[in-house]
Amino acid sequence: MTMEHGMKEREEQLLDDFLNGSESAFEELVKENRERLYRTVMRIVRNQDDAMDVIQESLLKAYKGAASFRRESCFSTWLTSIAVREAINRVKRDRFRNMLSLSLLAATPSSRCRNPEEGAVLSLLEGRVDAALRSLPAVQRAVFSMKFYEGLKVREIAEVVGSSEGAVKASYFHAVRKLRKSLSGLVSKE
């Protein structure tokens, strides 16, 4: 039995338990998916408060809609697709609201550097990368984040965003091209 198959079976059992009245089963499903959801959503919305709001909205939708989940994919994939759609909608709604929260800035690698010069350089780089990511359309940002940061396969991303594998590949290609252009002074073209 593969790890993915075992995970799907565990998720299905927890989902069955939840649908039969066990609140703790849903809590367990949330606990198993919380970190991945946070990383994925955070890379799309780029704001900690918005990420927490999106996750809360997504979990509420999953809670209310669990009985209608068709089980064609893993529960975690379904939950991630809800969160990605919510995050994309949040970005579209709040297009002009792109400030990083102070708590996010405090958690960046530049704040943990050995010397001030290194910290200043890393802070500048982080700012350029963050601005480049924010300049991407929401769907491209989501696809890029899931592939590059989360390591999801194209097939999985297609399930999450609800499009074809070809559309996912095209979105990723365009995102990479735009990021290379935006960061041309920082990265080599190899």
Give a short account of the largest sheet: none
Question: Which consecutive residue ranges, at least 5 long each, have pLDDT under 50?
Answer: 96-108
* Count of helical regions: 9
Q: In CATH, what is the class?
A: Mainly Alpha
Named CATH architecture: Orthogonal Bundle
The H/E string reads: HHHHHHHHH
The beta-strand count equals 0
Commentary on this structure:
It contains nine helices and no strands. With 190 residues, it is mostly helical. The protein has a single domain, classed as RNA polymerase sigma factor, region 2, helix turn helix motif (Rna Polymerase Sigma Factor, Chain: A, Orthogonal Bundle), CATH 1.10.1740.10. Helix 4 crosses helix 8 and helix 7 packs across helix 9. The longest helix has 23 residues. The protein is globular, with a radius of gyration of 18 Å.
Topology readout:
Elements: H1 3-19, H2 23-45, H3 48-65, H4 75-93, H5 102-106, H6 116-135, H7 138-149, H8 154-161, H9 165-182
Keywords:
single chain; 190 residues; mainly alpha; Rna Polymerase Sigma Factor, Chain: A; globular
